[in-house]
Structure prediction request, 280 residues.
Amino acid sequence: MDLRASRLVAAFAGLIGLALAPAAYAQTAAPAAPAAQAAPAAPAARPSRPPRYGYEVVNVFPHDPTAFTQGLEFHDGLFLESTGRHPSSVRRVRLEDGEVLAKRELDMQFFGEGLTAVGDRILTLTWQGGHGFVWNIDTLEPAGTFSYSGEGWGLTHDETRVILSDGTPTLRFLDPDTLQQTGSVEVTYMGRPLDRLNELEFIEGEVWANIWQTDFIVRIDPSTGVVTGVIDLSGILPDPVHNPADDVLNGIAWDAANKRLFVTGKNWPKLFEIRLTEAR
Ligand SMILES: [Ca+2]
Prediction:
């Protein structure tokens, strides 16, 4: 998916921008009531605009600038990271200096995508073809495969479910043992379906998702799919990137024990610990 048109950036930015401009919001008109009807129907409630957050950089760490980051998680003091393109890989990465401590490469036919760690297993996706891989979390030895329909983009998990994004507005829920789909939810922003949900992270009851090719992360209520907040990370990477359409924000990791939030991007030379600033 690194080859798609960057015009999609403008599409999402436009969607967010539209929501910021009340006059431009096109409400669906309620059907006109017959003239004889005494009590007019109440106007349809407009979905409220979710709060928008900024950020502060707390720490900056090195990140492999050749890592086309697809999935990122914090586990037991280090990062687990999956990368795309060819060869794709799954990695164990030291926080402090970005050193790749261990790496396994996928067969050249696969384009790596999202990652999540469940118990002693790492699960990773591939973009097209429905091939999922299971890895030993300590050794990165291959430990199995699984399959799914459609595309694979992002992965995370809550207490009982693996959560998968596929580029559409749908988040799928999988059984963590069988990796079979058990349900799904459609993600909406102000009542409209929101697609291009990419890297995921489950944080304190919410699913956070990078919107592909944008500087936005959305906060999703997984029970309803409603976007309850938008984080604007514009300007976080001061360095120039080789290819602005491809080298985009992607990678969210949450250190639950210490409540630290990390973000990076594809081929970014830096990884950031950030904290959110007040909603605007
Ligand atoms: Ca993640």
About this structure: The two ends are 32 Å apart (CA to CA). Residues 71-73, 156, 199-201, 252-253 surround calcium ion (CB under 6 Å). The longest helix spans residues 7-20.
